[in-house]
Amino acid sequence: MQPAGASESRREAVEALLDAAERLLIEQGYAAITTRKLAEQAGVNHGLVHYYFGSMEEVMVQVLERFTARLIERQRAMYASDRPFLEKWHAAWAYQEQDLSSGYSKIWLELQALAWNRPELRARVQHVNQEWRRVLTEAFAPALREYGFETLSLEAAVSLVMTMAQGYALERLSDIQEGHAALLSEIEVLMKSRVNGAKGPRSRTERSR
Questions:
Q1: What is the CATH number of domain 1-54?
Q2: Considering the entire predicted model, what is its pTM?
Q3: Hey, where are the domains in the chain?
């Protein structure tokens, strides 16, 4: 059994390495991070990186998992509130902007790309995706009933929003914003029309008649 002091020392070193890796992923990206640079940023001996994690890839995926856990807690609390779903939708997209600013979106997308060529990481990255999917599934089940979208299945709605959110983040990180405001605006119009009991906005073809 390790002495209590040794256990605390390990915990502090692990947290310091994860904090440093998170900063470096945001500022420089995975390709620029070396074991020595990470250890130097964390203020620990570089040998501790492999001693505690086994590989640099393990450090990075733990950064993603830790960051995700913080955000999912935030998201669940927001969706559990008594606000109308449209207000929650606004809050969720405000969080999307926060996640872009904080660097989470960059880390999430970079780790997905890293896992494309590393099968041993793929299941871990998929698990993060499943965690987000679970949050949306829980939130959207009552919302689909509230807005009367009977023709859209829960599975399809969750997949649509997840794909939209990641595509939005990918384009924003590439300094592309074309069409984003229009998309969000038209979705809001549709949701409001459903709340008001209307059939929804007319199609462009109908409006031109």
A1: 1.10.10.60
A2: 0.87
A3: 1-54, 60-198
